[in-house]
Amino acid sequence: MRVALHTKVRADRIDEYEAAHREVPVELTDAIRAAGARTWTIWRSGTDLFHVLECEDYGRLLAELEKLPVNVTWQARMAELLDVAHDYSDEGADAGLPVVWELP
């Protein structure tokens, strides 16, 4: 499945956000893959962040990452940089952007 997400970085923390993503811990990327993600890309337009990920089951991916220590640490770091953060609650699995159109 493909999931699109929208988050927002704080305007005064863009450089820190981008620097953090140049140093994503290997332990975290390995955990994201182990939880079923095949790809995850983030684009930025101003303070808007658009994520597209492909995974087997987004709800399972969130559940597996939610309490993983490396992810908890990462999410705490991101919480300092984001105005609108990623939702890891049960509702987060339904937080993807709705598809409006797709090239047939």
Automatic annotation (TrEMBL):
This is L-rhamnose mutarotase. InterPro entries: Dimeric_a/b-barrel (IPR011008), Rham/fucose_mutarotase (IPR008000). GO terms for molecular function: racemase and epimerase activity, acting on carbohydrates and derivatives. It comes from the Bacteria.
